Amino acid sequence: MVVRRRAKRQTGRGLQIDRQSGETVVVSYFGYREDGTATFYQASGKVTDGKNFVADLLEYQNGRAIGGRSRDGELARNVGKVRLTFNTESSGTITLPGEKQQNVSRYVFDDTRARLRNRFQAVMFESSYGITDTLKGLMNVKVIDDDFSAVFQYDGSKEYCVFSGKLVATGNTFQVTKGNRVCTGDGGSTPTPYSFTDLSVNEAGVLSARGSYGDVLSGVCVRRTKDLVATPSWDQTNRCTAEDLGLSSAPAN
């Protein structure tokens, strides 16, 4: 993560936060001392209330150097308390010892929206209006700049839903905000507000997202056809290639 207001100034300081699905968090801070030399500090502890973290920020010394002999590091000093409050999985605020509260957000190395521009064999676990249902179909996704649109056609049916909205990067996932859903079976196709959070496609082409009303979307990338709305067929044999997902190909031997 980086301190957001300084992210473009290349100050060379930041945080690495490791949380492995539980409450325990390890925070590593890398930055500089007053004399300009580089240093790192570490803190560990548990998140409370699902979003708050407070722990001692510690500096170590005399550990093993690269290429050096094995030896244990030792505590040099306690710098003070570090306080983190997460407002999303990839952003929040931090208060470092002796500093004011600042915004932080995950630094994104790659723009992964190219992975979204594909066709997916998808399942929607729908909980809208208190009705639980499981819908299978093909979802064709388009992303033009920050405009998101997707057509989800159900297997064995001519009915489909169209989702649209603004795509917003949130760390290594996306949100679709200011969105709508229009479905052919919704009596006159009236748009209803709809959004996605935690939208992502990983390196294997696996799609996942959380929709409005408690809906959950999951799927796999399959080779695109020329049709915007493809004929539904539950067949995962034609999986997307690395090129389809915007990934670098392995070098030839």
Automatic annotation (TrEMBL):
Entry protein name: Uncharacterized protein
Lineage per the UniProt record: Bacteria, Pseudomonadati, Pseudomonadota, Betaproteobacteria, Burkholderiales
